[in-house]
Design brief:
heterodimer, A: mainly alpha, 14 helices, 4 strands, 57% helix, disordered N terminus, B: alpha/beta, 31% strand
Amino acid sequence: MTVIQKKAVNPIAHLTAEDIEIIGKELDAIRDRVIVDRGERDARYIRKVIKTQRTLEISSRAVLLFSLFPPAWILGTAGLAVAKILDNMEIGHNVLHGQWDWMRDPKIHSTTWDWDHVSPADQWKHSHNELHHRYTNVLGKDNDLGYGIMRVDEDQPWSPGHLGQPFYNLLNACFFEYGIAAYDLELGENLRNGGHKAPEFRARAKAVGRKIRRQVLKDYVVHPLLSGPSFLTTLAATFTANLIRNLWSHSVIMCGHFPSGVETFEKTSIEGETKGEWYLRQMLGSANISGPRLLHIMTGNLSYQIEHHLFPDLPSNRYQEIAPQVRALFDRYGLKYTSGPLPKQVASAWWKIIRLSLPNRKRKAPKTVAPAPLVSAGA
Amino acid sequence: MTTTARAKVPFRRQLLRLAETVTTPLLPADYLDLVAPLRAGAALRGRIVEVRPETRDAATVVIQPGRGWRGHLPGQYVRLGVDVDGVRQWRAYSVTSVPGGADRRITVTVKAIPDGKVSNHLVRRIRPGTIVQLDQAQGDFVLPEATPERILFLTAGSGITPVMAMLRAGLPARADVVLMHSAPTRDDVIFGPELRALAARGGLRLIERHTDTDGLLGVHELDDLVPDHPQRQTWACGPVGLLDAVEEHWASRGVADRLHTERFRPTVISPGEGGTVTFTDAGVTVEADGATPILDAGENAGVLMPSGCRMGICFGCVVPLRQGAVRDLRNGDLTTAVPGDGVLIQTCVSAAAGTCDIEL
């Protein structure tokens, strides 16, 4: 079943069903080549990143014990922010995806890992790995689209509440880890339909509460207390480091699926979806960030969002290596490989949030009556 | 009047708790592991100190174990967790060093077997300084407290390794010891020069069998080579074929109680039928054939399987079978479970014999 296009310009109108299956086979081949080659070099990479992160975290916290001195504050805060970003992005996100499970190291495994984040690992794995990656950019299925509070697609109905979404988005960016925890709990939905009274929800909420307590105790009580006279400045430092981490991860994640050029899909489009069609949806539903190697590491290689969505469980250090092959495949089949530098992609995503806080302008394209799965979110 | 004595939490423990609040979600140990992986209290590990070639395909690996190493008895084996091509692999090897050396080092002697992932890595590729995972020594292939007067060691290939540890530890001078060892050629005899020197000093009678020229040892030949072997306490270690023949021979003479064997590999008697195996907690489902241990099937699918000796003796891999059927690869026994059951099975010697749900 080929997906049908609702918009005036259909990005896949030129593809036949056979083309889509061949694309799927070619992507399978790229994946198989990485898996055959995966080994010691990759293991060394992740262990090095983990070692760097731990060394940076412990030394930054040590420096912050003297945060009363401004140079110590700046150095310690910057180091801690980078350590937290590495923990969440290149390490946490990717380990929890199971990208390193093949090493059979119980210390670096998706079932045993926990991260510097208020959302417990198992809840995040469910909402992210099982829902978002499976239903990527499907309206009404993928809650990552606007996190259930924002309108990020013309096809989502507008309501006056959306007027405030640029502000909510900023607030969400500043306290992103709490936003994620609420989102993993499906807090809004559960409060609306009374699900918050169910024992299963209460158990999960309790787990989040425990995680928040531990994180707060560490960053805002024990570490400042250990700093003695530097109590207040350390408190400010850990708060700032968390803020930087939140703003950074929010920006990176917004760039993955919100910039213009990224497609969204209707629920009906994924009924009876083949492997090739699933791949195609991932290809069209994601956007990359271009930049230097350090940027890719700091984004957890989510700057290779397209490659990550095609192969969520391949080791993150491999995305950069396979990107040229994936891009060549896009070119060969006349598909748009959305990519841009970070500031441009962030601006594009923000512009969409602002634009869609207002109702749609009149559109020329007529709505089709038939099942109409693929819609463009582009301007 | 009663007074309540409040249990005093030791200072060390309090300090650790404080450290945990700072390192959460990690543990203080995760940081200490960066600088002191062999410290007391850490998960047991070892550092490779040296790799000494023994023959063209065997080498002795010298390991400095962590502070938590509790020592071994001659003849026991240790499980090593080695990262080969980035993947952690566990194997058991006999310890070949004498217990209680001053430097606390241990050695294992490994023979590279064809296509052996771990053995080839240890013999040819591993470098000094590498950290490996360790388990405490285990196994009951050891001499009793009161060493018997007459002993026969019957070994082949790398089967000499546990026996070497016993010989090095020293046997009472009065003991009458025969070592019957098989290897393809004279040069393939692991510890050849050391054994011959020991024999020359009168410590034992050494019978070498070079199988490339003389053919495999048949158990009936023992009547000529070691006529009093049924009267001797015998320790045998070697390939499955040899051990099976030896066990049968000793049983037929009615002296099975004088025979002690060590197997490095389970004997597959009867394969299962294969089937779909679901690891319920991990949410992973795999198709496993009847010859593949469930342990291997799970590991290949990325499930974090507990594992031990991988030959059915240590029970380190035991998990509940919630429903389904498995066949014991060593004897063909069928084990079944219906929903509600939690039959504990050894995954290293059990293959699927139908659809199985494993709680893991």
